[in-house]
Amino acid sequence: MTTFIIRRVVWTIPVILLVILMTFLLMREIGGNPFRRTERNVPAEIQRNLERQFHLDKPWYVQYAYYVKGVFTFDLGPSMVLRNRSVTDIVKDGFPKSLKLGLLAYLLAIAIGVPLGILAALKPNSLFDYAAMFFSSVGFALPSFFVATLLIYYFSVKFGLTPTSGWPITFWSFDSRVILPAVALSLFPMAYFARLVRGAMLETMQQDYVRTAKAKGLRYRRVVGLHVLRNSLIPAVTATAPLLGLIVTGTFVIEFIFGIPGIGRYFINSVSNRDFSVVMGITVLTSIIIVIANLFVDIMYGVLDPRTREAR
Amino acid sequence: MVVDRREAALPTAPPAVGAAGAEDTAAGAPVAQASLWKDAWYRYVRNKGAVAAACVFIIMILYCLFIPGFWKIPGIWTSIKDYDPNQVNFSEAYAGFSADHPFSTDKFGRDLFARTAVGGQISIAIGFAATFFILVIGVVYGAIAGFIGGRLDNAMMRFLDALYGLPYLPFAIITLAIIGEQNFISMTFALTIASWFTAARIVRGQIITLKENDYVRAAKAVGARWYRILVRHLLPNTLGVLIIAVFLELPGVVLGEAFLSFIGLGINPPTASWGSMAQDGRAAYVLHPEVLFIPCLAIATLVLCANFIADGLRDALDPRTRET
To answer: Which pTM does this prediction carry?
Structure first.
């Protein structure tokens, strides 16, 4: 078990390096020395000094090495557009807000999606099952920006229950502004969980050991609780990994609509400002989060289902 | 007879006859496979939801293709004027629903019935184009990794793991920024680059499973070369998975295009796509919600149909994984 975890953790390092490398190369491709002569008219000597300070006079692999060092020491360099702000400042400012949004949505998705899937699977082809699966299909199909706008239209504009935009300042403060973005973002993962848990439950219920448990005369509750649930929630755990990517993507749009000053909004603004050090910093950060989440899920999976340890 | 007619209705009756199939008359495979596809067809038709979804899907595509500009069906559409989707007419801004404008008009007075169709052309075309390239890359990458196996497979899959770490939307946005312009080709490219990984994984998994089959071993035993095994025995058998994958990938790409357009990184105006129409509609949704709702509902319907079709196809083509 320990070797499995160690091996898996060690594997993560080259993956992170590769992800940084790809982002780095992509960013170089977009181009641009931030101190190009065309952008700011500075004397040649100052230009050289600036380039030296930010290692822009070195070959690309040295720059890459400096950047990797920066990532691991939480120094992502200065913003190219916003003066006196470093990328780290921006991330520090925006990341907790995005994290809170993502976590809230994720918890909401689990809290509703998983029970929905379980209940649907317990009575397959019942009215409830059809309703739950219909809800799930719709949740898959509706674009989150549409859901968000619908929610604002009805709950904020028509009924005036919540503000249309904004976000609490600190991480631990909650108010009514949190509700709509979290709900809008949670719909897709909720649908995903419901469908996944239902499928896994149905599959498990056909296993021999469940039949044996029933044949032994165990009570229904015990069969479901002990044999079915435990074995069918594992797939739900693994599904977490791709979902995180989806939630990150979702936050970008949701933050854009609700005016939440998270990293997604900084990202979109930075793309239109061509502030590529911020774009790169945020991309690298979200990538690392996804990679680490994948690692976490793999280890969880290994703990829950020993058969997968050898395969990985 | 009935059976024959249904078989004729099948678009791809003998799927395995690829490039190598022409000179190969000895193989009995086509007969068996025709019945496989017939079976699949029967199973699909029995699934009411999937059939309904396919019908709606086809109707939507026909609507997008034939409504704008060219065609009018005599006696049915005569009450609707043939509007140019980009024709600005301020006196008719936000005209509301009417016989003239079944989907109302936007803030420039452009007819949304025509505009939704044109926007759909772009959205669906990007969707299918990106899906196509996703599958092409996926097949090549997955087939190489799965077929050769061993260290190369391991390395290729690790690389894919790393790519999985890249978040989809930022990746697509960066790609767009590198290209520097936003048009049909760059959007397709960005969406392809950002989302081909899953297809590659699926193909690889399928190839690895197929490789263990007895007929592959038999082919090897009679001395078939590796490319013959790959082209003749392995790739045709991934066709079913690929057809399903088309409808699994399509929703993601259509939604991705909509997201990009919605945050202002889509195709440049005045060219419409459903995402950019939604973005236009967002400015005035409080007073004129229909301008936002129509493109969004179009996206949702398309995605919903694609999901149902994918489910139906999976049940039809791969009965082993069917849910009870």
So the answer is: 0.80
